[in-house]
Design a protein that fits this description.
The complex is a heterodimer of chains A (380) and B (362). Helices cover 34% and strands 27% of the residues of chain A. Chain A is α+β, with helices and mostly antiparallel strands. In chain A, the strands form four sheets. Chain A has an eight-stranded antiparallel sheet with strand order 14-13-10-6-5-18-19-20, covered by helices on one side. A five-stranded parallel sheet of chain A has the order 2-1-3-4-8, covered by helices on one side. Chain A has a five-stranded antiparallel sheet with strand order 7-9-15-16-17, covered by helices on one side. In chain A, helix 1 crosses helix 2 (36-48) and helix 1 (4-17) packs across helix 9. The longest helix of chain A is centred in the first third of the chain and has 23 residues, at 109-131. Chain A is globular, with a radius of gyration of 20 Å. Chain B is of the alpha+beta class and 362 residues long. Chain B is 32% helix and 27% strand. Chain B has helices at 2-9, 27-39, 51-60, 63-66, 71-79, 100-122, 136-141, 146-156, 164-182, 267-274, 301-304, and strands spanning 17-23, 43-49, 82-87, 127-132, 187-192, 195-200, 207-209, 219-222, 230-234, 239-241, 244-246, 250-254, 257-262, 283-289, 310-316, 331-337, 343-346, 349-353, 356-357. In chain B, strand 10 (239-241) and strand 11 form a beta hairpin. The radius of gyration of chain B is 20 Å and the shape is globular. The two termini of chain B are 29 Å apart. Classes of the chains: A alpha+beta (380), B alpha+beta (362). Chain A binds chain B through residues 23, 25, 27, 32-33, 36, 39-40, 43-44, 47-48, 50-52, 54-59, 61-62, 65-66, 69-71, 74, 77, 79-81, 84-85, 88, and chain B through 17, 23-24, 27, 30-31, 34-35, 38-39, 41, 43-50, 52-53, 56-57, 60-62, 64-65, 68, 70-73, 75-76, 79-80.
Amino acid sequence: MRDARYDKLAELVLDHSLRLQPGEVLRIEGDAAAAAPLVVPLHREAIKRGAHAYTALDLGGLKEILVAHGSDEQLDFVSPMELREMDAIDASITVWSESNTRSFTRADTHRRQRQLTAQRQVAIRRRDRIASGEHRWCGTLSPTEGHAQDADMSLEDYEDFVFRACHVLDDDPVGHWRQVGDRLQARAEELGSVRELRIVGEDTDLTVVVEGRTWRAAYGRQNVPDGEVYTSPVETGANGTIRFGFPAVFGGREIDDARLVLENGRVVAAEAAGGEEYLRSLLELDEGASGIGEIAFGLNYEIDRFTRNILFDEKIGGTMHLALGMGFEALGGQNRSALHLDLICDLRREGAVYADGELVWRSGQFLQDPQPARLAERVR
Amino acid sequence: MADVLVGFCGGVRGGDLVTLESSTLAAPLLRELYRKVLEAGAQPLPRITLEPLTENLLRFGNDEQLAWLNPARADDIESVDVRIVLAAPANTKRLSNVDPARQARYDRSAEPLRNRYLERAAAGELRWVLSAYPTEAAAQDASMSLPEYEDFVFGAAFLDDPDPVARWQEFGERLDRLAGFLATKREFRIVADGTDLRLVTEGRIWVSSKGKENFPDGEIFTGPVESSVEGEIRFTYPGVFNAREVDDVRLRFEAGEVVEATATRGQEFLREMIAMDDGARRVGEFAFGMNEAVPMFTRNTLFDEKIGGTMHLALGTAYPETGGLNRSALHWDLVCDLRSGSEVYADGELVYRDGQFLNGSS
């Protein structure tokens, strides 16, 4: 039976995230089996909107065979057709759904990394076109049993969770996300005038310099669901300790209860209750892997629990996250790495955040509605 | 099956770019193919489809969308070395209720791609093989259980033979000899129940189809001289095209063109297809089905046109390698059972009777 919620999610992505226009060329990507429940309505609704929509679908299990059996040359292969294709499309959607989220857990890390590094060429081509305004992209998810299992839920409950988080059951989902955009953009502007943040929580006391960096609001353009504000902090400006209460899931492996000590923006001590060795191997991936690439606040309060999926976890309302590794160039970030490891710190119970010495956040909430500097000046 | 498709059919070599095109239902075979292509040192490129997507386009697309040629598909056709395509339907009648005019518009948009890949194939730049992965939908069309249908498919491909490749090579040699024999003939006359048809093949090339581009395979075909087809033919089996069936098709030809087309069911659809474009009313292919391991009709052209003891005509586009000149967005194979009460004359001489070429023909 057709579930109208998938249609509504498709409409939200096409109308709000991509603002798809008639005659535009849209590529829909995903795993043919796992993503099908969303790919089919995305394609149908895009066709109804007059776009030239088509799919580029993979099949779960194939990349695993490549990583297990491919020669170096095969691992390094980048399809010249796919590179050319990136230049010919106006918009694209990635449906990240997997049937089995752990199918790479036992794969050789180096070989997997090598294959991912090759595929980054395609991502970089797309990123450049997004940056120059020639391309619009959105990543989203269609619920699967695998993702539900990771979230300790039944598929039915997980669907409810996903569609609530996406606000597709609202009377006017597009209107909702526009409102979120207004609010988060104001918040980002306000944070843009802050010099230094101090995060205090359980086993956590970290100061992060963000002066001169641009904060960005994420309100459903490039991710659905969405709801965060983020920037790349000053690379040398993080000092203190932080404990990440939620496990980090990366490359199909988990790192539990990670604790980091940072000095002048670099990790100088790292431990974890589970996956400590894996965490250390990631930190040693390259020079930038032990530096900070991102600091962010998760502000989607419909996402109220950890589900082992970064698309949702980093937006949990009342949390902040740091990413080790690659920073955002467009926001002023200078750290470069093959790694971008998001680590999430729950600030809902004991958390407090100070902005230039002033308490701005307690128990999972900003204390006041955003008051951007410019707005404040105007009022004055 | 994967071994034979990659090695014997596709001739995959190191460095080749190989598209693997099918639906998710063929996943088990696709994974095997992917591994075999890697083992051959080539690069597998999965191109997975979902059946409802074509339906979305045909149902909701405007004329411009229906006519749109996807540049990514065109680039594939231009760039890859081998295409391995597996039919693996979930529902073969999904498009039964689509407006045939819209379907025809969509088919015409795909014509340049089809012509280009046939052109590259004829020039030896692109190898392709169309095969089938057994599904419930295909089994249902064949009126079989899935296990029975699997046996049928693998049997038709000689995969129950200890050395399938040797068997295909041997069969191929026989077909080559037969093609050589037919190439010495100028004109053919087919006589069967409701059928008395003449056509000229002089100057055209007989191709033996022996497991390279279709798998399973087993036919010899040519493109007849376009203006030479005269007389009438009654097709024993339903014509199956674009999810529709047309029963008991009878065609009358004059100077190579269909001048009368009737059917007991689906006659209107038949006539619409024939009116699709200029080439759709002419014959693009004349062929004999030669695979004795395909004994029955299963509503799937890949198999039906190979039934041992049958002949078929295709309305529409010709294969360039036969020398056939007809071009159309249509290529509709219609099959005529010759296994009882039938005769074929070549230049006046009886060469085929009741489903078999006579001694001395091959």
